[in-house]
Amino acid sequence: MKPSRPIKHSHRGHPSHEDYRTLVAESLKSPVEALEKLTKLESLPGVREKARRYHDDVYPLGKALREIFDEAVQAIEASSAGVRDMKLSRAASFLKVWYPDRGTVAEAARQLGMTRSYVSSKIRRNAIDTVVDQFFKIVGDLSGEK
User: Fold this and answer.
1) 88-137 pLDDT, tens per residue?
2) Cα–Cα distance for residue pair 130/110, rounded to 1 Å
């Protein structure tokens, strides 16, 4: 899976943090087989650590990434329970439809009782950004910090 825009490299030739964020955001709903090809993400400490657990599997990186994505979404859904944060609540509601069953934005919009264009431009973007933030909390960044 290629990112939708070319990856710009930082001064040392490594992709920038924003490039990693884009790669994660574009890969959330990808099948395990496609996730296996995202070797750039393997340089993240938490990804590398989880992939080691699946070393005997056909798709160790793909399974590790899927597990981390699932964990990030579950953390968002759990943190939205009982909180009066409309943005977080809508993100969690969107993810319940869009993420696990590979639902569409239109299906999520119907569930939320909103227009598809509003859900696509506001809620989807916020939900994905929130998942990406949670992903990096789980795996750490390139400096090894979690």
Assistant:
1) 999 999 999 999 777 899 999 999 999 999 999 999 999 999 999 999 99
2) 21
Residue 28: closest CA among 87, 90, 70: 70
With a pLDDT cut of 90, the percent of the chain lying above it is 73
Model's pTM, two decimal places?
0.85
Contact 127, 121 (CB under 8 A): no
Could you give phi then psi for residue 139, rounded to 5 degrees? Answer: -95, -15
Phi, psi of 9 (to 5 degrees): -95, 145
Q: Answer for the pair 52, 66: CB distance below 8 angstroms, yes or no.
A: no
Q: What is the DSSP string of 108-121?
A: HHHHHTS-HHHIII
For 26-43, write each residue's pLDDT tens digit: 999 999 999 999 999 998
Question: Which residue bears the tokens 């999520």?
Answer: 108
Domain ranges of the chain: 17-139
| H-assigned helices in 30-123 | 32-35, 45-53, 60-80, 86-98, 105-112, 116-118
Cβ(106)–Cβ(116) under 8 Å? Answer: yes
